[in-house]
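ok here's DUF4198 domain-containing protein:
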Amino acid sequence: MRNSRYLLIAALLAVAWPAVAHDFWIEPQAFRPKPGTAVGLRLFVGQEFKGDSVPYFPQKFERYVVAGPAGTQPIPGVLGDEPAGTVTPAAPGLYVIGLHTKPDSVSFDTSEEFEKYLLKEGLERNLALHRQHRKPGRKIEETYFRCAKSLIAAGAVGDDADHVLGFPLELIAETSPYRARTLRLRLLYQGKPLSGALVVAFNKAEPLAKLKARTDDNGRVEFSLPHSGVWLVTSVHMIPASFFSGHDWESLWASLTFERP
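and the structure:
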């Protein structure tokens, strides 16, 4: 039994957490359940709502919680389960699912490959520093973290605001997408507003029709959501890695999912 468990963990390590440069999101099996209904939580890594599902793997979780009317609790589960855990909203209200992962890493063989990646993810402000410090012929090493959230509306909800979970990079819905078509978001890095960051929003039915905006000096962006359905909002922030980390760069990937009625 012990050997089987070790083999399962090794297999999950090998396939469950694909490399960086892809979105990571939480997709509940129901965004608007009735109170008292169990809701399975699916984790995905990929692009444009197409990707691989990720099982419940607590060795990779820094924090995995649900915040609602009764407070904040950890999300339990069994190693290897998919969906990756279940929550049961007991009372009406807005529930926030949050997952902050432990660090993982990826490497880029060439400077050109890394620069294409920076441009694709809206990280142009890192280009100059990269070119200043790059070392020809050496791989570029990056460590990264995921900071994913999802909003669930159980029964009737008022103007309940999103919960701030304290993730290193966090997207916060300052207006409820279950009550208004205009979504105002704030992006925090280490608890402070992050300005000039690219924020991207898209609908599951039309994932290529992306809405894009840069955060203002207060870390805010605003989108008018033209369609109902499931939405994914993402943002990426990158900084030079600590000298003692063994990496060149550190990136943080924030996401937020919800369903607009």
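+1. The radius of gyration is 19 Å.
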